[in-house]
């Protein structure tokens, strides 16, 4: 697919390896949507799963041809034939042939420990299993990528035998030999040593597949590329079994921006952050804020000296421009923030505002007072920007909240029902409505949406994706003040809001109202070109 030595083939295993991670699960529809996003990003290979192993993967392989992907090749994953069985009689291999794909990836054993204790067969039979399985798939017109499972552990135990397993795959016709650090325990130096030995004995293209159990998956993958490997496997956001797979969201920009090795289609790198966030949302998992390159905090600055330096020259505290990966510079707000920090944020609304403007002084004092009361705006940019709108007289009250009431009832079969009654005013119209939810906050959310949806139908695009509560005065017990942080999205933009109170419902209501109000106002300001936030 790629011919230049400076180009790297990217093989994404999010839909197969990724779902083996704790807390990760995708429906068939989820997998299809992610496949479309990976294709848009310019990923070369998308591993769809085990065809025939479960109804979800069967449905995926039947539906994915309808997507008409423009660049990516969907692959099916399987293993070598079982011991003492002909390849033509192996159900796993036959499912790969009938899956409808043009390329298959199969794994085989490189480590004697697995040959003896997992496969419970002989070393010679394992070599035959590898070669015959690859040859069988090739005879049915499939291109074959061979994953040498546990290769580096096998190499440490018996380097000669580990290399012989690769030679068997090559003899069968494998087009790429992928060296796998399946247990994730190899050091960079060990990966490099093994690669040097493999290159002396084999000529087919090599690939790398690493796990992160030692925190070295990305480092090992990058080191392999520096030694000539041109096929890299991993998952978006590093999802995967145990500690995860190599994170393509870190590997791809590192290779492109630091080693000048193109991985994606030209001009697609700036789509990486949104793709990473998209996969997090589909997985219904929080997006890792401190993730390299694509995390919300990847280009965040809080200390006054850091902010001042970045304002003068971003290179002072940023290793790459955030725009290159589709991210943005972010100044974190707190009671230690100076005027420079606030000025950077305010200029999203008022590009020509002076540092000594009275509005800036008012905002500095407001942030310091609110943070003293327990508010935190680092992850609540939505609430902060509402304050900015109000101070700069750009705020438009979309609805006025008059009050609410919550009833929590424990019904039959120990089922808890929460009902929220709220009253809001929009213009001269007073709306009094109620809704049920699976908890007080959900009931309030449903009631508020019900009250305003007729006038603001775009509220239906807004979805709460995360809810966090933190006790601020742990010595006071149940009477303590709490801080509630809510994350919401409209499918394109992610924002946070905050509420603080001794009453957890009141704090939640404050954060919830901010979330809905900011989501509605953001779309209006964006359409009018008044904000870039």
Question: Any descriptors?
Answer:
8-stranded parallel beta barrel; 3-stranded antiparallel beta sheet; alpha/beta; 533 residues; single chain
Kindly describe this structure.
The protein is of the alpha/beta class. Helix content is 38%, strand content 19%. The protein contains 17 helices and 16 strands. It has helices spanning 28-41, 55-63, 91-98, 112-119, 123-139, 151-157, 159-172, 188-201, 217-226, 248-258, 272-283, 304-312, 339-346, 358-372, 381-391, 440-452, 504-527, and strands spanning 9-12, 45-47, 73-79, 103-109, 143-149, 176-181, 206-210, 231-234, 300-301, 330-331, 400-410, 416-426, 429-437, 463-471, 482-489, 494-501. Helix 3 links the parallel strand 3 and strand 4 (103-109). Helix 5 (123-139) runs parallel beside helix 7 and helix 8 packs parallel to helix 9 (217-226). The protein is elongated, with a radius of gyration of 27 Å. The two termini are 38 Å apart. The mean pLDDT is 90.
